[in-house]
Amino acid sequence: MKRVLVWLVSTATAVVLLFGYRTSLSGPMTTATQPLAGSAGTSSGGANTVTGPAVDTRWGAVQVQITLDGGKITAVTVPRYPDGNRKDEQINARALPILVQETLQAQSADIDTVSGATVTSEGYVESLQAALDQAGR
Amino acid sequence: MTPEAGRRRPLDAGVRGVAIGLLWAGLALVTYWWAAGGGIGDLGGWESGLNSLGRLTGLLGSDLLLVQVLLMARLPVLERAFGQDRLIAVHRLTGFTSFNLVLAHLVLITWGYAAGDLTRFPSQLWELVIDYPAMLLALAGTACLVLTVVTSIRAARAKLRYESWHLLHLYGYLGVGLVLPHQLWTGQEFLTSTAATVYWWSLWAVALVAVLVWRLGLPLWRNARHRLRVTSVVPEDDDVVSVYLTGQDLGRMPALAGQFFGWRFLNRAGWTRANPYSLSAAPDGRSLRITVRGLGDGSTALREMRPGTPVLFEGPFGRLTDRARTRRKVALVGAGVGVAPLRALAEGLGYGPGEAVLLHRFARRPLFAAEFGALVRERGLHVVDLPGHRRSAGSWLGDGVPVDDLSALRHLVPDIAERDVYVCGPAPWAESVRRAASAAGVPADRVHVEEFRW
Hints:
The complex is a heterodimer of chains A (137) and B (454).
Chain A: H1 2-20, E1 36-39, E2 47-51, E3 55-57, E4 60-69, E5 72-80, H2 86-106, H3 118-134
Antiparallel strand pairs in A: 1-5, 2-4, 3-4, 4-5
Chain B: H1 3-36, H2 46-71, H3 76-82, H4 84-113, H5 121-131, H6 135-150, H7 154-159, H8 162-169, H9 171-178, H10 180-187, H11 194-226, E1 229-237, E2 240-246, E3 260-265, E4 275-278, E5 287-293, H12 297-302, E6 311-317, E7 330-335, H13 339-348, E8 356-362, H14 369-379, E9 382-387, H15 405-412, E10 420-426, H16 427-439, E11 447-452
Parallel strand pairs in B: 7-8, 7-10, 8-9, 10-11
Antiparallel strand pairs in B: 1-2, 2-5, 3-4, 3-6
Helix pairs in contact in B: 1-2, 1-3, 2-4, 2-11, 3-4, 4-6, 5-6, 6-9
């Protein structure tokens, strides 16, 4: 009887703690059908958009488009990324927002690869660097 | 045979057919959606093949996981058509199968995400669990399933008390529940089409409702209605006691002679443990009686139980009843305390003189000797006592029987092939009776067996 209670309480505690973990109630990953985008601040009239080349990776092409306003990267979209199957969709749905965020923070292509999405990260950085070069930065 | 029982037989067979059809259709549908989503084409590549197989095993595994919850939800329609012992056997099979599929799913998907590279498997697994939606929950759910399955492997099960095993087994529900969110958020197979969404949510809803209504609600309601109490505890033999129970409105309890209940006696710490015991007298609308051999801890404690002790019950269960009967003539074959439900049947079944025969195996003394004597005199029951210890592990007879199992059965009950055979006793013994009956020409659907394990 006492043992049953101990088990019951420990189990309930464990379940509550499990649900406290950040992924447990996060909801689905946004498997974006739209190109992924991120932006920092509103872009004024002087903004121009530069599209990097589509870089072929093992799993498919990655292409980055950036919006520059007075030399500052204000927005990043990823019109093309590997989404041929559900696994790629999931991996990139997780990785791309991180890459976009890093780009906006670093304001350069000098960003870390996202673990578990090395291939996409490398393609992303290559396309981003080319876009920045093209913009003369 | 009552006319009612005759009508129910084809109905029960129909329900069995439909249930098996639905199970098959569900698995076929899930496989179809997998194939329609390019599952077969993906098998061409190494990495995509791993992912594709991982998806298929996951889908079939979760389908069967819900099916085996349904099988144990005490659905009246399934209980009546299959009988709980058969449901348990199917539950065991689907349970182990779904577990193996879930493990295969886990390995294949992780391996596939690691691009088919085994050296990356551990880091990939870590990442999946830490970063992907609800995957930590899924891992915890899998751990619950592992616990449930490992304790149910025969070797482990034999070492556990029934009561402990049963409580541990409830972790299965937690496991099934904890793996749901990752199916919605990471797998997203539920959402491939409207039909798939409807199918999966319906299956989940049916499983949940079935458990809430029939596993929890109905027993609570019946207990509130009948409020069973112990009236007396009577020793039958050295280690066998009969417990007499009474309650309110027992005439409306749908119990049949030959059925069993799960019992919880609220006399001491034992209320957490439900023990399955058969009725040993036909229910008369005023009282119930069970007869128990002191094997488990709970059984021993019954001896010291005071009159007035409240009792919780779950049931009735079992198909060792008039419902399964197809013939006028019956043979009841029981061993040890397994004769208890047969004692109820000998009282509750309708039969004329000579139409019912009881083969009663016991080691030293027969149980219910006086009561069977009365049934012999008043109802024309034919009783054959078969004393002695079992002569060998494969035989259903005691030592001192000069002929083989089949010849003995034919000699004792020459018209055995024309009878329904009701068997209750330890599992291996019951199996040897089944073999002898089958060899004597009794079709399988006329041998009705209730095994007991404790």
